[in-house]
Amino acid sequence: MVEEKQPSSTDRLQGQQWQPKIVAFLCHWCSYAGADLAGISRIQYPPNIRVIRVPCSSRVNPLHIIKALQHGADGVLVSGCHPGDCHYGSGNYLARRKFALLKRFLEFIGIEPGRVQFSWVSAAEGQKFASVIREVTEEVRKLGPARRLVKNLMK
Amino acid sequence: MDEIESKLRQTAKQLLSEGKVDLLIGYRQGSLPSKTTPCFITQEQEAAELVWNSFCTNNLAVYLPGLFRLDPRSKKREQKKVGIVVKGCDCRSLVGHLKEGQVPRENLVIIGLPCQGMIDEKKIVAKLEGKEIIKAEEQNGQILVVDEKGQEIRLAKEDFLRDCCLVCQHPVPPLYDILIEGKTARQAVSDEYTEVKELEERSIDQRWEFFQRQMSKCIRCYACRNACPLCYCPECFAEQSQPRWVGTTDDPSDIMAFHLGRIFHTAGRCVDCGACEAACPMGVELRKLTRKLIKDVGELFGYEAGVSAEEPPPLATYKLDDDDEFIK
């Protein structure tokens, strides 16, 4: 039987309050620009996300998500263009099918539903971007540090 | 020798002697009585080695992509003609290969056999409690097993079928050039995904516990991958080093990542032939995981793998009104 990961020293170093680390895969054409707009509009949102820019939400391989969870992310967010707005025509439609299956599958094996999340944020939705990040951060914070799937060689 | 077996041998002999195939893939008796082994025959006299019985468990479609792999320099395939013996599930894997452009249809002669369900050797071994099987054969819906002490045991075939055969919906190959008739196929049953639903209803912690328990058995021999007809990538993600997708340690997390990756690669393609679970030496219940995806693909996209060669793969197409509720 596998032992679940104990809070690491870095978790403790951050003081009384543990801060979730969230990897956000943002599509270049919409969500990344949405994040930019939130920034230049000076909209406040939690600093817990680590943004990785991808050409399209369909670029995100399920293995990217699994690997993020393995290596210390407490949550993963994938965000792309709204349906119909994909720069490449149909990328987000294909991503939607892939992630619908992935989300169900990860929940089936016992990964908490809030750990891996998906959103559509357009380049004009700075407000929405900020509120999505707030929601995701709060949900992951409630779940606590990720313990499942985490690779921990220092036992 | 029964009628269906002699028809099969005759067909094979004819195909080879007339030069319609250069190579024929079928089953012959294995070195153990309760096993058959895949055989590759090129001479017509070898056709007499072919067998067809309830022990033909292997999925022969697994060999096809390797036979037709593109030469990396010339970008060409060998132009040989291959005959292959298929039951329902093998044929559905083969349809997947055709759909994914791995195997040229014009180079294939598909010999379909209606399947009566195959026997799970592990179930017989468990029943015999460690005694060696000296002889095993099927007689009128029963399996006659002789153990090392010469004792004859008759077992009802139905109780020793493979789990995947018990829920098989396509015992007759959906695509064939020659259909060897004789016995009627097993009655198709409606698959209720009972064991998947049972797991779905458990709490998230219990599901995690189940997944952990299964993964802790794995020794990463990759037998599941090698037996899987869908795992034909020349270089598997599990072995790629640039990028290194999965660590090669025995850390539980790496084992899980390998299985999640492999199983997810079969999403919308897996036909539940049971090859992975049959190949696993450690008894990892892989089909509970692969069948979850089969169930979801059916529920979400109304798709069943390996039935039609024309229908596009579910993850390579989309509908405007696909489920969107999980997205913020």
Structure description:
The complex is a heterodimer of chains A (155) and B (328). Chain A is an alpha/beta fold and 155 residues long. Chain A has a single domain, classed as Rossmann fold. Helix content of chain A is 39%, strand content 15%. Chain A has five helices and four strands, in the order H-E-H-E-H-E-H-E-H. Chain A has helices at residues 9-13, 31-40, 62-70, 91-109, 126-143; strands at 22-27, 49-54, 75-80, 116-120. Chain A has a four-stranded parallel sheet, sandwiched between helices. In chain A, helix 2 links the parallel strand 1 and strand 2 (49-54). Chain A starts with 8 loop residues before the first helix and ends in a 12-residue tail after the last helix. The mean pLDDT of chain A is 89. By secondary structure, chain B is of the alpha/beta class. Chain B folds into three domains: 3-116 and 170-179, no CATH class; 121-160, no CATH class; 194-316, no CATH class. Helix content of chain B is 32%, strand content 13%. Chain B contains eleven helices and eight strands. In chain B, the strands form two sheets. A five-stranded mixed sheet of chain B has the order 2-1-3-4-8. Chain B has a three-stranded antiparallel sheet with strand order 5-6-7, with no helix packed on it. In chain B, strand 3 (82-86), helix 3 (88-99) and strand 4 form a beta-alpha-beta unit. The radius of gyration of chain B is 21 Å and the shape is globular. The model of chain B has no long low-confidence stretch (mean pLDDT 91). The A-B interface holds A 1-2, 62-63, 66-67, 70, 83, 90, 93-94, 96-105, 107-112, 117-120, 132, 135-136, 148-153 and B 199-200, 204-213, 215-216, 237, 245-247, 249, 251-254, 256-257, 260-261, 263-264, 267-268, 289, 292-293, 296-297, 300-301, 314-316, 318-320, 322-324, 326-328.
